Amino acid sequence: AQRVTQPEKLLSVFKGAPVELKCNYSYSGSPELFWYVQYSRQRLQLLLRHISRESIKGFTADLNKGETSFHLKKPFAQEEDSAMYYCALRRSSGSRLTFGEGTQLTVNP
Amino acid sequence: DVKVTQSSRYLVKRTGEKVFLECVQDMDHENMFWYRQDPGLGLRLIYFSYDVKMKEKGDIPEGYSVSREKKERFSLILESASTNQTSMYLCASRELADSYEQYFGPGTRLTVT
After folding, report:
1. CA B71 to chain centre
2. For position B84, what pLDDT does the model report?
3. In terms of Cα–Cα distance, which of B47, B21, B28, B48 is closest to B106?
4. Residue A88's closest chain B neighbor by CA?
5. Is some CB atom of chain A closer than 8 A to the CB atom of B104?
6. pLDDT tens track of chain B, all 113 residues?
7. Among B104, B108, B109, which would you mutate to test the A interface (most chain A Cβ atoms within 10 Å of its Cβ)?
8. Of A31, A95, B52, B54, which is most buried with the most CB atoms under 10 A?
9. How confident is the model at residue A2 (pLDDT cuts 50, 70, 90)?
10. Does B106 touch chain A (CB under 8 A)?
């Protein structure tokens, strides 16, 4: 069975500092990886997925199959990045998502 | 713009009551999902449905059931609510099985006393 682990429940950085939210997964095949974000009092929404390989709101994430990781990075954090971030995996197109425990990011002024 | 709505934002029920949580989506999506969101545990899938009248168990189906009589509506039922079902419940929809994005509702905060 697949599993997603986000080792940091809470992460606090200062504005302008780099930020990295860690995500590790266990799955023997070739999964699809996603990051979802939930801002305060807003719905959970898709931030990015590994297949697109694009930068969204300054965030990027690279799938490292050797280390089975999909860390989310941003070089200069902004206060508006404060939110709950979830890493998610699906085994193949059509299957359900498996979410990690979530990381609450706080960007301090 | 996809809209997923949930019948209540906040709900307080007593132990043993039968509870219905309703979810409606307006984009003709085939797939719908019910999750629990708990601090430190993330999102856990309760049930999902690939189409009308179809349902499949997720990771934590015990104590819950679902109903999908119409494509746009997916109901979560707590047959006899218990205090350990106090949680935030999120509904989501997905256009097709191979679509990559899920669209979430605003959530229902259920408290069972």
Report:
1. 14
2. 97
3. B21
4. B43
5. yes
6. 669 999 999 999 999 999 999 999 999 999 999 999 999 999 999 999 999 999 999 999 999 999 999 999 999 999 999 999 999 999 999 988 778 899 999 999 999 99
7. B104
8. A31
9. confident
10. yes
Backbone dihedral angles phi then psi of residue B110, each to the nearest 5 degrees: -100, 130
Chain A interface, best mutation among B2, B100, B101, B103, by max A CB count within 10 A:
B100
pLDDT per residue over A21-47, tens digit each? Answer: 999 999 888 889 999 999 999 999 999
Verify whether the Cβ–Cβ distance B58 to A96 is below 8 Å.
yes
Q: What is the DSSP letter of A17?
A: S
